[in-house]
Amino acid sequence: MSPILVRPVREQLEHDRVIRLLQTKFRRRFDVGINPGAEQNSPVGTGPAAVFPDVVLVSQDRGRKVMAVIEVETVESVNNLEAMAEWIPFGRLKSPFHLYVPVQMVEVAKRLCADSNVPVAEVHTYHWIGDEMRFLPVYKAPAAAARATSPAAKVSTRPASTKVSARQATVKVKSPRPAAKKKPAAKAAKAVKAKKKPGKSTKRK
């Protein structure tokens, strides 16, 4: 929880519940550390520079690399002070910063990220449908999207060049054939002219 923000009790309970639902969502792929409320269970960094995002996703291999940090906000905490105090520092970490906000606050969160130059990797919304919480991605940083598409682009350009060269090769092979067909047509035209000449000479006589 932000040191500059005291949420209403109801919002704080919802905030901590979302954190635990995200822990359940990601626990199959990552070792998930959470810092609900004022708890400081899973730091990122060491010493005085350590920070405590709401959710910390750590790889399950020996490297124990932090794959992403997540900050969950409620309606009251989507504001400029929160962006300056937590979003910007979390965005400057080596790990991607993901932001989760209520669905009705998504446009406000996007504007705050743009105005404060927050280096956020992804923005997600959350909302309840009955007793089920739904998470929906609504923004992905252009740099992350470009890295995801660049390998596919490199692969697709290579077959294109081979197809063009194959077409050029077939054109060169077929080009002599039309020239060979013109010779019989020329002979037939000469034969027709030869037949017409005797007819003209008989009319003059």
**Average pLDDT, to the nearest integer?**
80
Q: Find the CATH topology of one domain.
A: Trna Endonuclease, Chain: A, domain 1
Provide a count of the helices. Answer: 5
Give the strand tally. 6
Shape: globular
Proportion in helices: 40-55%
How large is the radius of gyration?
Answer: 36 Å
The CATH class designation of one domain is Alpha Beta
Please indicate the percent range of residues in DSSP E strands (runs of 2 or more): 15-25%
H-E order: HEEEHEHEEHH
Low-confidence stretches: 148-176, 199-205
Give the terminus-to-terminus CA distance. Answer: 121 Å
Task: Based on the coordinates given, report the CATH architecture of one domain.
Answer: 3-Layer(aba) Sandwich
Biggest β-sheet description: 6 strands, mixed
The largest sheet has its strands arranged as 1-2-3-4-5-6
Structural class: alpha/beta
List the helices and strands and how they pair.
Elements: H1 9-26, E1 31-34, E2 55-58, E3 66-72, H2 80-91, E4 97-102, H3 106-115, E5 122-129, E6 132-140, H4 142-174, H5 176-204
Parallel strand pairs: 3-4, 4-5
Antiparallel strand pairs: 1-2, 2-3, 5-6
In brief, what are we looking at here?
The protein is α/β, with parallel strands linked by helices and 205 residues long. It contains five helices and six strands, in the order αβββαβαββαα. It has a domain at 9-143: Trna Endonuclease, Chain: A, domain 1.
Walkthrough of the structure:
This protein has a domain at 9-143: Trna Endonuclease, Chain: A, domain 1. The longest helix has 33 residues, at 142-174. It is of the alpha/beta class and 205 residues long. It contains 5 helices and 6 strands; from the N terminus they run H-E-E-E-H-E-H-E-E-H-H. The protein has a 6-stranded mixed β-sheet, with helices on both faces. A hairpin with a 2-residue loop joins strand 5 and strand 6.
